[in-house]
TrEMBL record:
It is found in: Cytoplasm. It comes from Streptococcus anginosus. Keywords: Cytoplasm, GTP-binding, Hydrolase, Magnesium, Metal-binding, Nucleotide-binding. Residues 161-338 form the OBG-type G domain. Belongs to the TRAFAC class OBG-HflX-like GTPase superfamily. OBG GTPase family. An essential GTPase which binds GTP, GDP and possibly (p)ppGpp with moderate affinity, with high nucleotide exchange rates and a fairly low GTP hydrolysis rate. Plays a role in control of the cell cycle, stress response, ribosome biogenesis and in those bacteria that undergo differentiation, in morphogenesis control. Residues 358-436 form the OCT domain. Mg(2+) binds at S174, T194. Monomer. One of its GO terms (biological process) is ribosome biogenesis. This is GTPase Obg. Residues 127-147 are annotated as: Disordered. It comes from the Bacteria. Pfam families: DUF1967, GTP1_OBG, MMR_HSR1.
Length: 436
């Protein structure tokens, strides 16, 4: 089994805030003792941190649930509970994080040490010391902690490379990578020897350096799932230049120009924006007897079928085996890299404006529906959050919750929908009777 994994779906849960406390001063010599219950501590965030030592999302295959600690409860003597430490999750460079439910990109983590909070911890609930007023100097009210954010995430690893090698299987991409870098990819005389992306660093004779990724071979129909399909094409999205490697010897009986068209069609089918990247055509295996004549025919077809307004891609004849033409190819690649900008992977429509929403301010405070047993069901982010943070063990807190519902307009809305005295009203698993 390959130890390379470039996609994963995980669940993250930030810590809940600690509950506030109801307590009173009871010292023997302190008259008129008042409330003394402290606030709960903040729940821990779930934080992704880029670790340049990681190369795969393999760790997320066996651990798919990440839960931060909750904050401590408030204590007597007005002492606040301790906030929980953040849960740090290490991810490799080039990890894109999406919300699995909406498909929106939360962040693109590409710099070593970069941090991003993917789930925010809840704030601590207030203790009764916070609710003291001149009218109610000894309140028996406290809040439960705010629930931590919980979400399902889709992770995608797109390796960081300046240059991507593409082409049919067995055209010599892995061999080329092995001679221009210190990478040691598996090389074999059969299709799909390369089943995971390989990465290597190139240093030219002039001192320039850049990263090269060798991607598993494409075949015609890859965009429809043939062969390895588009399983690894995501890794070319970060590259700025594509080296299109072609077997100019036609040793497998294919026409080099048809190979060139077929691979470009698969790139375009996967992501049209890949065609924006400049390409250099690498005419490989020029040490073979038929290669020179095939290259001549290839150039004629390329010129004949190219739009006169488009710039013809550069063609470099090489032999990975004899190392012929490699220095010229690498110098030209470095020169093209210098004048090629980075390509923006995601536009604004794909990105979430903010990483965290407590609730949408424009959304209705509550919604009313009817259950099968004729009970009225109240739902909505604002209402459910208010419900969760209410301590129903205290009668004062229950009365406060009832007043808050009335202030939100719940009573009037139920009455307008036809609710009658004694009707059952449900919030989650909590039930109470409607009083008209």
């Amino acid at each position: 089994m390959s130890m390379f994994l470039d996609t994963a779906k995980i669940k993250v849960k930030a810590g809940n805030g600690g509950d506030g406390m109801v307590a009173f001063r009871r010292e023997k010599y302190v008259p008129n003792g008042g409330p003394w219950g402290g606030d709960g501590g903040r729940g821990g965030n779930v934080v992704f941190v880029v670790d340049e030592g990681l190369r795969t999302l393999m760790d997320f295959r066996y651990n798919r649930h990440f839960k931060a600690q909750s904050g401590e409860k408030g204590m007597t003597k007005g002492m606040h509970g301790r906030g929980a430490e953040d849960l740090i999750v290490h991810v490799p460079q080039g990890t894109t994080v999406r919300d699995a439910e909406t498909g929106k990109v939360l962040t693109d983590l590409i710099e070593n040490g970069q941090k991003f909070v993917v789930a925010h911890g809840g704030r601590g609930g207030r203790g009764n010391i916070r609710f003291a007023t001149p009218k109610n100097p000894a309140p028996e009210i406290s809040e439960n902690g705010e629930p931590g954010q919980e979400r399902e995430l889709q992770l995608e690893l797109k390796i960081l490379a300046d240059v991507g090698l593409v082409g049919f299987p067995s055209v010599g991409k892995s061999t080329l990578l092995s001679v221009i870098t210190s990478a040691k990819p598996k090389i074999g005389a059969y299709h799909f020897t390369t089943i995971v992306p390989n990465l290597g660093m190139v240093r030219t004779q002039s001192g320039e350096s850049f990263a090269v990724a060798d991607l598993p071979g494409l075949i015609e129909g890859a965009s429809q799932g043939v062969g390895l399909g588009t399983q690894f094409l995501r890794h070319i999205e970060r590259t700025r230049i594509i080296l299109h490697v072609i077997d100019m010897s036609a040793s497998e009986g294919r026409d080099p120009y048809e190979d060139y068209l077929a691979i470009n069609k698969e790139l375009e089918s996967y992501n049209l924006r890949l065609m924006e990247r400049p390409q250099i055509i690498v005419a490989n295996k020029m040490d073979m007897s038929e290669s020179t004549e095939n290259l001549k025919v290839f150039k004629e077809k390329l010129v004949a079928n190219y739009d006169e307004f488009d710039e013809l891609p550069q063609i470099f004849p090489i032999s990975s085996l004899t190392k012929q033409g490699l220095s010229t190819l690498l110098d030209a690649t470095a020169e093209l890299l210098d004048k090629t900008p980075e390509f923006l992977l995601y536009d604004e429509s794909e990105m979430e404006e903010e990483a965290y929403y407590g609730f949408d301010e424009d959304a209705p405070a509550f919604e009313i529906s009817r259950d099968d047993d004729a009970a009225w069901v109240l739902s909505g982010d604002k209402l459910e959050k208010l419900f969760t943070m209410t301590n129903f063990d205290r009668e004062e807190a229950v009365m406060k919750f009832a007043r808050q519902l009335r202030g939100m307009g719940v009573d009037e809305a139920l009455r307008a929908r036809g609710a009658k005295d004694g009707d059952l009203v449900r919030i989650g698993k909590f039930e109470f009777e409607f009083v008209d």
